[in-house]
Amino acid sequence: MAEENEPKGGAGDEGKEKPEAAKGSKASSQTSAPSAQELDTPPAVSAVQVAEGRKAAWAAPFARLDRGWTRLDARLCAGVLVAEILTLVFWIAMKSLASTGRGGPGLVFRCLVTATVFGGVAHLITRRMDTGDPRRLKAQGINTAAVVLGGVLGATWGEAGTAYFGNLLAWMQNASILVFFGGASEVAKRLTLWLALLGASVATGQGKHINVDVVMRFLSPRARVPVAVLGWLAAALVCLCAMWGFFDHVAIADYRIAPTMPCPQDTTKRCNTPPSEKIDRVWSTTKKDLFLARRQISLDLKTLPKVLTGTPYNESLTPKEWNAWLREGNWEREFDPEAVKAMELPEDGSGGDYRAPAVTSYPGGSEQIHKLLIRELNFVVAFGLLVIALRFVLRSLLAIGGWVDVDPNAVHSDDELVHAHEEAAR
């Protein structure tokens, strides 16, 4: 009986499957057979593919350079900002610790440091407590009490550490490489200028610089590229002119290079000092300044361990050690040997038992060692303007190659987000 019913059931299933198969074949024929209008319509092209098609292959290396340059500038911005903050915090801490703890900034700093230490230790102890309301309130109370206790105990420091940190601060102010910069405040000022110029370089590379786009909105898309390139090249020229102006000012004011000199043809007349002469003299003087800075750093490495162990900084170097350090530096490569010889001290004690561990005079010259490297740091503005000019030129090349959109609304977009979308679309 079962065998007789089985063919019937199979025949019934076949009858059901045939209409479904017919429906499927009909639907597939409808979907697979395009109409004549669809055949005539070209496939849609995404905006990313259009942008990729407009990009010239010769500009691809410039695009990679631009992205790498922007990443470098961004990292330098972060590094300079952190360095500036650490410099100021360290200098304030040293001056406060060198001051008396019975009042003034020394007392305030010691209270803050002690309260921070006590509060941090209490937080480490109580952070593993349960998150329930009673225990959380208990942990907060412990942390608050620890901070208050630390602030109170900070007022009991008195003169503790004043002599030690006072000696260390005096060494930094009078006998270290900081003398060449004029102190930490001067270093912080130049770092601020450098940070501003790095930000300007990043803005230029991303097209976020200040621009007037009223004219660009009335131009056709094809005419925008030449106008934008012309404006960027003009901006680069202005930056280069300003760069030379700053360089010339530093050369005359800080390097004491005369703006005029006797004319080669007629020595009775005065002519402007040629740029090549200024550059040569700046370079030769900078080499000497950097040589003195390297020698001072080598001297700091000899005396800093003694100062850290509590030795008075003005008693950390004997005349014999000074003369040995002087002879091993190859000073004759940069300065007159007679001027270097005059810097040696008598070792019989007639000139004193100790020598200040610092380069205190310019061999054979009248320049002061104090703030000697400030004139080199003053070139940061000229260097920053040169970098911005190069970024304008690079952006012009990218615009010509189709790698930069000169649409007025494009300046409000995020270049990094656009690059990420393009990479994802690939």
Automatic annotation (TrEMBL):
User: Can the keyword Lipid biosynthesis be found in this entry's annotation?
Assistant: no
Broad class of the protein's primary localization: membrane
Location of this chain's protein in the cell = Cell membrane
Instruction: Please list the residue ranges that the record marks as compositionally biased, kind Polar residues.
Output: 26-35
Stated membrane topology is: Multi-pass membrane protein
Give the top-rank taxon of the lineage listed in the UniProt record for this protein: Bacteria
Which part of the chain is the Tripartite ATP-independent periplasmic transporters DctQ component domain? 183-265
**GO CC terms of this entry:** plasma membrane
Chain ranges passing through the membrane: 74-94, 106-125, 137-157, 163-184, 191-207, 227-247, 379-404
State a single Pfam family of this protein.
Answer: DctQ
Q: Which UniProt keywords apply?
A: Cell membrane, Membrane, Transmembrane, Transmembrane helix, Transport
Chain residue ranges for the region called Disordered:
1-44
Stretches of Basic and acidic residues bias are at 1-23
What is the protein named?
A: Tripartite ATP-independent periplasmic transporters DctQ component domain-containing protein
